[in-house]
Amino acid sequence: QVQLVESGGGLVQVGGSLRLSCAASGTIISIDTMAWYRQAPGKQRELVAIITRSSSTNYADSVKGRFTISRDNAKNTVYLQMNSLKPEDTAVYYCNFKMFVSGRNYWGQGTQVSVSS
Length: 117
Hints:
Blueprint (H helix, E strand, L loop, with lengths): L1 E6 L2 E4 L4 E9 L4 E9 L6 E6 L5 E3 L7 E6 L4 E6 L8 E9 L5 E3 L3 E6 L1
Parallel strand pairs: 2-11
Antiparallel strand pairs: 1-3, 3-8, 4-5, 4-9, 5-6, 7-8, 9-10, 9-11
């Protein structure tokens, strides 16, 4: 069984920064992609950023140039550095890991990010 634990959310003012972390524990052979999603009230969950095993990255247009995703394979951890935060970034942020061998997806419990204007 694999568990993902997120940390780093909170309340920040417009223009501020936050860094989210998501660490996996359990029986892990190799993690394929690591990603961050978010879900705002009344909206569907959307992909924010994704990073592959080779550290290729892709971002939602709304966060390009402001957010940076990175990973530490030795620690089975993914990070999301969020700068120049806007009120529209307010959401619950979820990490997602896809395992390389099984292809199974695992989700974190979610962490709230609130940006006040």
